[in-house]
Design brief:
CATH topology: TIM Barrel
Number of strands: 8
Shape: globular
Distance between the termini: 16 Å
Largest sheet: 8 strands, parallel, barrel
Bound molecules: 2-phosphoglycolic acid
Helix content: 40-55%
Mean pLDDT: 97
Number of domains: 1
Order of helices and strands: EHEHEHEHHEHHHEHHEHEH
CATH class: Alpha Beta
CATH superfamily: Aldolase class I
Strand content: 5-15%
Number of helices: 12
Low-confidence stretches: none
Length: 254
């Protein structure tokens, strides 16, 4: 049985008091209401990580994630944060290659390959994001583009290493737009990614890797998307900023 995961990417939102309020509400609602084994990951901005960690404590249901990290251990990289710093703050997961990082901060597949390696060496779980823009889908090149993103960033890993990765398929045209991929489109791409991993490594390894869907997941569409065979949860943006909505998305696995 693959792990189920619902991760909330707060992006650049919430002051510290707002973030603490949001996290406490989610923690209480999840503890009181959720009846499933899905792991929940809260992913606030860097500066709130320790504040949110003190609310999460040592839960085995709710984990702390970061939105990015640098590919070096330490040094003269003003404004950056390293994997070992994240670990020292209680972080267990880190998003890498979100489409906003690719688009606004020029992150390439080559850089992401370094980052994935480095976070794994530090014992973090990378949530590696891939996904195509609208024009790529319209040109029917989405499989080839996502296939290349996965291959370039992940296929230098050993089989043991790739088994520790979480993948998030996030079609860029569905992020923050209110237009979600249909359950069939999500399933098709998740199966495509899983088959690609099976061909490179093994079916057993491909079957062990959680693949999350991201892009306008809301309480009213989560159940249908999560019920697809190869969809193992979600990476949630907008709806993760509302404790009731985010908890209801987690409850879609009940
Ligand atoms: P969204 O964002 O849920 O607001 O579409 C998803 C993401 O960017 O991970």
């Amino acid at each position: 049985m693959r792990k189920k995961i619902v991760a909330g990417n707060w992006k650049m939102n919430c002051t510290l008091p707002e973030g603490k309020k949001l996290a406490s509400e989610v923690i209480h609602m999840v503890e009181d209401e959720v009846n499933n084994e899905a792991e929940v990951v809260l992913i606030p901005p860097f500066i709130h990580l320790t504040g949110i960690q003190s609310l999460i404590g040592s839960s085995n249901k709710i984990f702390l994630g970061a939105q990015n990290c640098h590919q070096n251990q330490s040094g003269a990289f003003t404004g950056e944060v390293s994997a070992s710093m994240l670990v020292s703050c209680g972080v267990t997961h880190v998003i890498l290659g979100h489409s906003e990082r690719r688009e606004y901060f020029g992150e390439t597949d080559e850089l992401l390959s370094e980052k994935v390696n480095f976070t794994l060496e530090n014992g973090l779980t990378p949530i590696f994001c891939c996904g195509e823009k609208l024009e790529v889908r319209e040109a029917r090149d989405h499989e080839s583009l996502v296939g290349t993103q996965v291959e370039k960033a992940l296929f230098d890993l050993s089989e043991d290493q790739i088994r520790k990765v979480v993948i998030a398929y996030e079609p860029v045209w569905a992020i923050g737009t209110g237009v979600t991929a249909s359950a069939e489109q999500a399933q098709e791409m998740h199966a495509f990614i899983r088959n690609q991993i099976a061909a490179k490594y093994s079916q057993d390894t491909a079957d062990s890797i959680p693949i999350l869907y991201g892009g306008s997941v809301k309480p009213d569409n989560a159940k249908e998307i999560f019920s697809q065979q190869d969809v193992d949860g979600g990476l949630i943006g907008g709806a993760s900023l509302k404790s009731r909505d985010f908890t209801n998305i987690v409850k879609a696995f009940d």
